[in-house]
Amino acid sequence: MRWQVHSEELLYTDQWLDIRVADVELPNGRHLDHRIIRTAPGAGAVVTDDEQRVLLIWRHRFITDSWGWEIPIGKIEEGEEPITAAAREVEEETGWRPGPLRPLLYTQPTNGLSDSAHHIFRAEGATHIGPPTEEWEAERIEWVPLADIRRLIDKRDIVSGTSMAALLYTLTDL
Questions:
Q1: Would 95 disulfide with which of 14, 16, 84, 132, CB 3.0-4.6 Å?
Q2: What domains are there in the chain, each with its CATH number?
Q3: CA distance 97 to 11
Q4: How many beta carbons lie within 10 A of that of residue 74, not counting itself?
Q5: Could you read off the pLDDT of 48-73 as tens digits, one per residue?
């Protein structure tokens, strides 16, 4: 059953997001106002090494007032290819340059509310190039054993949907 969108009205916009209300008709003919958040797509990477570890950042998310491990991910800039954005985000957030990237996963983590789209890549190996240029992104940057991922999810030390999906997907690829 497909919902029909009759119109969208802008409620708020800035450089990060665009909030709208849509007039949506349900299959039974009922109309409702549905909020939509539009954002630029994002790109990130799962970077592993030859010791079966993954490069993660430990960061605070003020919206949920929670700490957790995440893969490096961020906004794809205008005109930038997702793979280029993923490599840039890894370098900026961790200080490590990922090895050759290959597609791993595409996800729409909140598709009931947002058009957010995440392009996730995988790199096997990285070269340390110095401190991260966006040092405010993470409290810690660590190579975490892949064998610990399920335990960290169970402990709620990994709660980001995109990070969790990408890491679990990586575990199935070992």
A1: 132
A2: 4-39 (no CATH), 42-172 (3.90.79.10)
A3: 39
A4: 18
A5: 999 999 999 999 999 999 999 999 99
